[in-house]
Amino acid sequence: MQTKIVKITDENKKEVLEKAANIIKSGGLVVFPTETVYGLGANVFDEKALAKIFSAKGRPSDNPIIVHISDEDQLKELVDTVSEQQKKLINAFWPGPLTIVFEKKKEISDIVSGGLPTIAVRMPSNPIAHELIYLAGVPIAAPSANISGRPSGTTGEHIYDELTGKVDMIIDAGFSDIGVESTVLRINNEQVLILRPGAITKEMLEKILFPLAVIFAKDRRELQFSPGTKYRHYAPKAKLEIISEKMEKRAEVLKEKKLRIGIITTKQNKDSFEKYKPNVFVLGDRNNLEEISQKLYDALRFFDTHPVDIILCESFPKEGLGVAIMDRLDRASM
């Protein structure tokens, strides 16, 4: 397959998105930007196209795919009922980085739901994604654009090597704004279960859904309803260790063992690791979790071109967006 790679601009936007929408309509695959990470998209109603997603990514067939919509009319094509609590979430957070798990219509393919009776849906706020879905005229099923298990793509360049020759088009719009995947939640028995943390935090959800309890799901039977929870994800090629304290000491121990060391650190601590350059990636200001989040996968992919034996990464407080950041780091280090 020949992949068309396009850097989208204001001048070519209309032409590029019309071509991409036609690819989706005709059963092809398009990589496109969203505010979270890049997505690998296909027509949700085309089973052959859905199968191509799993083939391109090497994705396990029991891993659900999030479906992206441009408006609530498209939601009606996917689900029969929307609860009052779900309506509150839609009004508060759509379009945006929140995925809601619904009971799906029976006619929706089990391929997209990983064999489950549910479907995970979100409405992206990224204008390119929104326009592409609108022009395609169908909801677009789109997991993250990467080989399964690897760090998600947050720029078009991240994706070129992995997916060129496996998809019809890659739309490159530079860095994603958020840099980690959407929050995924399911409402079950009057509880709000966060299946995967993201930029929509527990605290934000509690404000909208009070007095419902909002909790992080831990039971595997619940976690299966979300992508990114069952298998090893987000992992760089080298082994990753998350260090909560005394990172310099740990680096010295590994250096004595003649190991090549990579460092992921913050602006506040970068001077402590001068001796490890050029294998040092500075995420940004430790107090700016939005900046840390945006650069996280770029940091993990950095060491694909700066080969090391082990990567040491600072840990972050599990509060607000820090919960999502640490979730991705913990899974990458499994």
Automatic annotation (TrEMBL):
Residues binding L-threonine: T36, H68, R122, A142, S182
Entry GO MF terms: ATP binding; double-stranded RNA binding; L-threonylcarbamoyladenylate synthase; tRNA binding
Superkingdom of source: Bacteria
GO cellular component, one term: cytoplasm
Main location, first listed in the record: cytoplasm
Keywords from the named record: ATP-binding, Cytoplasm, Nucleotide-binding, Nucleotidyltransferase, Transferase, tRNA processing
Recorded catalytic activity of this chain's protein: L-threonine + hydrogencarbonate + ATP = L-threonylcarbamoyladenylate + diphosphate + H2O
Residues that coordinate or bind ATP: R59, N63, T118, S144, S152, R196, Y234
SUPFAM superfamilies: YrdC/RibB (SSF55821)
Physiological role: Required for the formation of a threonylcarbamoyl group on adenosine at position 37 (t(6)A37) in tRNAs that read codons beginning with adenine.
Protein name from the UniProt record: Threonylcarbamoyl-AMP synthase
EC number(s) stated in the UniProt entry for this protein: 2.7.7.87
Family named by the database record: Belongs to the SUA5 family.
